[in-house]
Amino acid sequence: MNEIENKKISKFLSYVLRHHPDLIHLQLDENGWANVDELITKSTGHSVGFTFEELDEIVQTNNKKRFAFNEDKTMIRASQGHSIDINLALIPQQPPEFLYHGTAQSNLDSIFDKGIEKRNRQHVHLSADKETATKVGMRHGKPIILTIKTGEMFENGIHFYLSDNDVWLTDFVDAKYISKE
């Protein structure tokens, strides 16, 4: 499968598994899992169709590990980033002392006024390293990297979760825990 086709299918999977399973009348369980055979069958009638082998390749090679199979590869879900209400069954974990958030210059006033909000997603996404945060910020324009005092947040009783693809998640980041480099 070529890179363009891989990207097209990956974007489709993100859209359906994270935001709109209703597009193809796909049922997700309470934890966001979809039946692989049903996903493949229902995707065929849309602009994107793929085989199990192509789906497996996308899950295995996606550099952001956006998707995960269950053990026997009969179910699939997005690792994080959902705007629909699902329970990823994440266990609270202690984060490192600092995590990073990539954003655009145009968002800074709002962030330093209101904090970092999850908006239409289930969680705020934070990165363990500046390089990843820079890549995230580049999607929104010239990247700005914010340092988040996650150790202090954790000491103050704020919960953090680590997704299957190593993205740190929390519900909200108050401006008092944010600094710009």
Describe this structure in words.
- The protein is α+β, with helices and mostly antiparallel strands.
- The protein folds into two domains: 3-78, Arc Repressor Mutant, subunit A (Orthogonal Bundle); 99-180, ADP-ribosylation fold.
- The chain contains six helices and eleven strands.
- The protein has helices spanning 3-19, 36-44, 52-61, 108-114, 130-138, 150-155, and strands spanning 34-35, 67-69, 75-78, 99-104, 116-117, 124-126, 143-148, 161-162, 168-170, 172-173, 178-180.
- It has a three-stranded antiparallel β-sheet with strand order 1-3-2.
- The N and C termini lie far apart (41 Å).
- This is Probable RNA 2'-phosphotransferase.
- GO terms for molecular function: NAD+ poly-ADP-ribosyltransferase activity; tRNA 2'-phosphotransferase activity.
- Belongs to the KptA/TPT1 family.
- Pfam families: PTS_2-RNA.
- It is an enzyme of class 2 (transferase).
Q: Structural class given helices, strands, pairing? A: alpha+beta
Query: How many domains?
Result: 2
Q: Biggest sheet, strands in spatial order?
A: 1-3-2
Secondary-structure element series: HEHHEEEHEEHEHEEEE
Described by strand count, sense and barrel closure, the largest sheet is: 3 strands, antiparallel
- What do the pLDDT scores average to? 93
Give me the count of strands. 11
- Shape estimate: globular
CATH architecture of the largest domain: Alpha-Beta Barrel
Helix fraction? 25-40%
Percent in strands: 15-25%
Radius of gyration: 17 Å
Treating each run of at least 4 consecutive H or I residues as one helix, how many helices? 6
**Text of the CATH class of the largest domain:** Alpha Beta
N-to-C span: 41 Å
